Known about the structure:
Blueprint: H1 3-32, E1 35-40, E2 49-56, E3 65-71, E4 80-86, E5 95-99, E6 108-114, E7 120-126, E8 135-139, E9 148-154, E10 163-169, E11 178-184, E12 193-198, H2 200-211, H3 214-218, H4 221-258
Helix pairs in contact: 1-4
Amino acid sequence: MNTQEHENHIKLKYIILAVLLVVPMLCVPVCASSHSVATTCSSCDGSGVVFLGYETCPSCGGNGFTYEDAACSMCGGFGYTEYEIACSNCGGVGSFMEMCSDCSGMGTITIYDTDGEGNPVEYTETCSTCGGIGFFYYTCDTCLGSGALTEYTMCGDCGTSGIVSQTVDCTTCDGSGNIKAYGTCANCDGTGVVYSLVDYFTYVNMKLMEDSSWLTVLTDPSYMFAYILYCLPACIAVLVSALGIRKAIAFIRDTMNSA
């Protein structure tokens, strides 16, 4: 073997040794950190939505109140207001009085007669027509005895509709004029949970904090999967590194012997 081939041979051994030592060890943290764990999203506290701010209430346009129709309080929804005036027919009395024509208002009448001997006699008795009152009373047919008449005028508040429009607090925004706006949480895309890669030890500690039982952790398929992902590359790296060390020792020994 000439000098150039000997140098190339040495370089190749170094390259192989570096690959055997370094690459497997780099795989260990990658595999060990490949376990996905779901946690509650801290941005939205697991709700999936976040508060974006305030926007104008669409129900009231930001006024804080809306209009609604209600019966007019002035006329009670009738459309007219009413008031009473004295009956012009009876002068507000409600009835009329008329003197009895039989007794001329005296209440009694005089009876002229003769006694048994034919002598003229006279006496008085209660008028049967008016019952001794001397007058007759009858109800006014215009006001039906009330003495008053009701007149109506157009209501000054509602015209004749009986309906008025009044303001009430907006129920959508409780009178504030603004409502809270919410949107989908960008951190968790509205799911309420986020997923992160953790290493083997962190995963085991999380499981222990959740379940407080090693038996639960050891029997968890996810744990076994993480265990394999961590230990298998580690074991391979150790074996390959041992092989690399052995090669290195042999290389050093061959180099010393050749010298």
